[in-house]
Amino acid sequence: MARIEDYGMIGDLQTAALVGRDGSIDWACFPRFDSGACFAALLGTAEHGRWLLAPRADAWEGKRRYRPHTLVLETEWETDTGAVRVLDFMPPRGKAPDIVRIVEGLHGHVEMFSELVIRFDYGGTIPWVRRTEDGRIAVAGPDALCFRTPVEHRGENLRTLGEFTVKKGERVPFTLTWYPSNERPPRAIDAEHALNETLKFWQDWAARCVYTGKWKEDVLASLVVLKGLTYAPTGGIVAAPTTSLPEKIGGERNWDYRYCWLRDATMTLQALLAGGYTAEAAAWRDWLLRAVAGDPADLQIMYGIHGERRLPELELPWLAGYENSKPVRTGNGAAEQLQLDVWGEVLDCLALTRNSLLKHTDESWDVQVALMQHLETIWDQPDNGLWEMRGPRRHFTHSKVMAWVAADRMVKGVRDFGLTGPVERWETLRDTIHRDVMANGFDPARNTFVQSYGRPELDASLLLIPRVGFLPPDDPRVLGTIDAIQRELTEDGFVRRYRPADSDDGLPGGEGVFLACSFWLVEALLGAGRTQESTELFERLLELRNDVGLLSEEWGVRAGRQLGNTPQAFSHFALVTSALELHQDMVRRSDTPIPPETERVGQ
How confident is the model at residue 600 (pLDDT cuts 50, 70, 90)? Predict the structure, then answer.
């Protein structure tokens, strides 16, 4: 099976697919990120759905890359008889989602092979396939796919197979289009026209980026990935386009990330605003407000891409899991957990919006007041923490710090912007929470903050204490925490979220180092004045990306491979904000916008 880093992502701003180095599309969900997969070989075998398009004979990969500043993926192969290039992409959505593949002969001639295995509902449903004048139609239940190409194909063992030879200068198109099975198939698209339109869309979008610093290509590559994880109709951004890629090979820590997490909100806004993408930032903020509307007591940590609240967690026993990592899950039961930090994340995000002078910034104040009023009644309760632990609830230090953030941002809304609210009461609460954290969440003997009250374990979230403004970045207690985390919570210099064996998180087994946490250490070191060390760690993290610039959730140090769902928005957001702060040699609070550059990348 391919390694996680062997996959590239293509997408149309409503869903995405993963393409392996071997030319096989092993994961694709239609019509949305969170829909059932029609290609699920990523979590099973080829029998669970895939689309292989590659040289028939022995071949070796020449190179693979994205066309600059796009999600158009190019893969080249060399054989004994010639060379060929395959372009894979998904045109930004018109009426229906399409996967387009174009095979281009580079020199000599190459015999090619296409194997299309369609299995709807995560590999569980074999469709009925019939011929049409210009291709094939596959139908099962509510789903239908239309496959079109000039290459002659045949049906064999519930697969659609084709062989052809491509010579220098020839270009052979393939399109696969999803549509509701109760409707007529969409009109055929012209693959070459779709390619030109897709390239133009991405290149025009990339040209809007205003960052021009040292790592501009790295930043822009990550911003393109983040755009690709955006569900355009609502502005929501999924954590990843995949489910159940394991945090440890063979382990059970396999989760569905095709939803929108509130704790990503502030970092999302900072990254988009600093890149000059105010429209995307505003759309994300509007999605956030719609999602959290309602009773503040019902605030969830995550929502569906349309703001759905019910995300029931199910297991799919017919799938063996990525490298036998079971179970395969859809939905996410953590949506029902109590995680107090999300109130702080939401109010921090809306404060950042207000401070960034985006339009329509104050009509949400009533919602913020309602959220704060509820948090006042529950902030001192134990919760599950930001890592969604499935063990007993505890008083997590990060959760209390984020409750302090909530009160602090509400106070500033009144004091700095003249908004209305019981500011004296919130100031008193802010001070009370601060004293509580210092009394119970800090170990003076070790000079470090701890994961939860009354226990000695460390947690990477403690690195965010200066980022949210709870203490200055050069405070001795912050510096002590940095040292303790580097000493006790790192592997090969990269940061673990926490040590599962010591943290009673309710799950067996371990996990890799968490990439976003290592970027948090980059920012913490920068704030501590350790700029060279910060830069060196950042550049080491860049080396963990795959050959087309993608980062998953985690990194397995011993195996030297990516782990977890991919590409992971949290990792790419953290990359962007770390690069921007290193470039400007300054760490900014989470409610303070990182000012954009004045020149554009395209100039």
Answer: very low
Sign, CA torsion 318/54/550/602:
negative
Indicate the helix (H) or strand (E) that contains 581: helix 569-584
Query: What is the C-alpha separation between 548 and 225, in angstroms, rounded?
Result: 11
Q: What is the pLDDT of residues 51-73, one digit of tens each?
A: 999 999 777 776 899 999 999 99
Task: Note whether 197 and 227 are same-domain residues.
Answer: no
Angle between helices 278-292 and 341-355 in degrees, nearest 10: 140
Cα gap 209→276, rounded to integer Å: 6
Please give the average per-residue pLDDT across 134-144, as a whole number: 95
Q: What is the pLDDT of residues 340-358, one digit of tens each?
A: 999 999 999 999 988 886 6
Pair type for strands 82-89 and 60-66: unpaired
Q: Do residues 219 and 180 share a domain?
A: no
Q: Residue 352: helix, strand or coil by DSSP?
A: helix
pLDDT of residue 269: 86
* Interval 213-248: pLDDT, tens: 899 999 999 999 999 999 999 999 999 999 999 999
Provide the residue range defining the domain that includes 53.
Answer: 4-204
Whether residues 168 and 262 fall in one domain: no
Which one of 180, 204, 228 terminates a domain? 204
Number of domains in the chain: 2
- Banded model confidence at residue 311, pLDDT cuts 50, 70, 90: very high
By CB neighbour count within 10 A (0-12 exposed, 13-18 middle, 19+ buried), where does 202 fall? Answer: buried
What are the residue ranges of helices labelled H in 124-240? Answer: 191-206, 216-228
How far is Cα 124 from Cα 195, in angstroms, rounded to an integer?
A: 32
Confidence (pLDDT) at 601: 40
Residues 183 and 221 occupy one common structural domain:
no
Q: DSSP string covering 490-535, please?
A: EETTEEPS--HHHHT-S--S---EEHHHHHHHHHHHHHTT-HHHHH
